[in-house]
Design goal:
With 367 residues, the chain is α+β, with helices and mostly antiparallel strands. The chain contains six helices and 16 strands. InterPro entries: DnaJ_domain, DnaJ_domain_CS, DNAJC11-like_beta-barrel, J_dom_sf, Mito_inner_membrane_organizer.
Length: 367
C-alpha cells in the first residue's frame, strides 16, 4: 500500500491514506467504504490466538485513528499539510473551521509560536510590577485660605509621591535546582533606593525544599538568608526563614516561622511569628474560590499592630476583571481601600486602587 507523495507533506511512520488503502483525493464515501471493509477484515474478534488477537487490535486501533482524522475536513486539511506533527499541536480545537490551506499554515505557525512562548515562560516564569502612587488629598481637603494669593491655587494639587518597580526571573539549573534573580527600585517623596537578590532553591524531597538567598541594596546593605519549606501532613506545612541584615549600624538577625493548615478545600489558616526585624505575631484566614477571595488578619507587633479584612470578587470574563475592597485599622490609624483590576493583554494586568486613610489622606495607586 503506497501513498502518493506531495511536496507540502510531512512524512510519518504510518501514513493514514496507506493504512486505509485509498487515494489522497478519495471522497468521504470512498473513505467510509474502505474503513468498513478493513474493519471487517481485521476485527480482533476473528482471532482466537492471543498473539494474533493482539496484533489485530493494534491494527484495528490504527485504522480507527486514521479514519477519525481523514473523515473530518478540518483535521484532514491539517494532516495533508503538516502530517501527524500538525495534529499534535495544541489549540486547533478553538480555530475556526473551513479554512483554506494558506490559512491553516498561518494558524499552525501562530500556534507554534505560542507553544514556544509558553515553554519559555514555564522555564523562566518572568514576573514584573510597576506601581505608581498619586497623592489626591487636595481633591478632598483644600487649603485655599493659605494659598489664595498664589497663582493657580484654584486647581487641586495632584502629585506622584511614590513609585515601585520590581522584576524577577527563574532559571532551572537541574531537575531539582532553580536560581531566582529579582530586583526592585522604589522612591517616595523624593527619596529612593533599590536592591538585587539571588536565591538558589533545591527540592530535597517530595515533602520539602530549601533556599539560600543573597541580597544587596543601597539602603539596607548586604543580606544573607536561609529558607526551609516542609509538608508536615497532607493538610499542614511549615516555612522557616532566617536572615542576617548587614548595615552601617551593625548586623541585625531576623527569624520568621509560618505554620499553615488547610481548613477546607478553599480555606487556609496561617500562624506567623517574626522576631528581630519588625517583630510581630500574626494570624490570618484566607478563603479563595473561583469567584471570590477573602482575607481576615490580626497582628500584634512592633512597630505596628492592626486588624485587616479584605474581599475580592472575581468576574468570570475573558478580561479576568476583579473588584476589591479592604479595611485596615491599627496604631497607625485607619485605612479604607477599594479598587479594580483587569487583564489588558495576554501577559499584562492593569489595576487601580483608591486609599482613604486617617491621618494618611487620600491616594491613588496605579499598578
Amino acid at each position: 500500500m503506497a501513498a502518493a507523495s506531495s511536496g507540502d507533506e510531512v512524512p510519518d511512520n504510518e501514513d493514514y491514506y496507506s493504512l486505509l488503502n485509498v487515494r489522497r483525493e478519495a471522497s468521504q464515501e470512498e473513505l467510509k467504504a474502505a474503513y468498513r471493509r478493513l474493519c471487517m477484515l481485521y476485527h480482533p474478534d476473528k482471532h482466537r490466538d492471543p498473539e494474533l488477537k493482539r496484533q489485530a487490535e493494534q491494527l484495528f486501533n490504527l485504522l480507527h485513528q486514521a479514519y477519525e482524522v481523514l473523515s473530518d475536513p478540518q483535521t484532514r486539511a491539517i494532516y495533508d499539510i503538516y502530517g501527524k506533527r500538525g495534529l499534535e499541536m495544541e489549540g486547533w480545537e478553538v480555530v475556526e473551521r473551513r479554512r483554506t490551506p494558506a490559512e491553516i499554515r498561518e494558524e499552525f505557525e501562530r500556534l507554534q509560536r505560542e507553544r514556544e512562548e509558553r515553554r519559555l515562560q514555564q522555564r523562566t516564569n518572568p514576573k514584573g510590577t510597576i506601581s505608581v502612587g498619586i497623592d489626591a488629598t487636595d481633591l478632598f481637603d483644600r487649603y485655599d485660605e493659605e494659598y489664595e494669593d498664589v497663582s493657580g491655587s484654584s486647581f487641586p494639587q495632584i502629585e506622584i509621591n511614590k513609585m515601585h518597580i520590581s522584576q524577577s526571573i527563574e532559571a532551572p539549573l537541574t531537575a531539582t535546582d532553580t536560581a531566582i534573580l529579582s530586583g526592585n527600585l522604589s522612591t517616595q517623596n523624593g527619596n529612593g533606593g533599590g536592591s538585587v537578590n539571588l536565591a538558589l532553591r533545591r527540592v530535597t524531597s517530595a515533602k520539602g525544599w530549601g533556599e539560600l538567598e543573597f541580597g544587596a541594596g543601597d539602603l539596607q546593605g548586604p543580606l544573607f538568608g536561609l529558607k526551609v519549606f516542609r509538608n508536615l501532613t497532607q493538610r499542614c506545612f511549615i516555612t522557616t526563614n532566617f536572615a542576617l541584615q548587614f548595615s552601617s549600624h551593625g548586623m541585625r538577625p531576623g527569624f520568621t516561622t509560618v505554620l499553615a493548615r488547610h481548613l477546607d478545600k478553599n480555606t487556609m489558616g496561617y500562624l506567623q511569628w517574626r522576631w528581630g526585624i519588625q517583630s510581630a505575631m500574626n494570624t490570618s484566614i484566607v478563603r479563595d474560590t473561583k469567584t471570590s477571595h477573602f482575607t481576615m488578619a490580626f497582628q500584634l507587633g512592633i512597630p505596628h499592630s492592626f486588624m485587616m479584612v479584605s474581599y475580592q470578587h472575581k468576574f468570570e470574563d475573558e478580561e479576568q476583571t476583579r473588584v476589591k475592597g479592604s479595611l485596615k485599622a491599627g496604631f497607625f490609624g485607619t485605612i479604607v481601600e477599594y479598587g479594580a483590576e483587569r487583564k489588558i493583554s495576554r501577559h499584562s494586568i492593569l489595576g487601580a486602587t483608591i486609599s482613604v486613610g486617617v491621618p494618611q489622606g487620600v491616594s491613588l495607586k496605579i499598578k
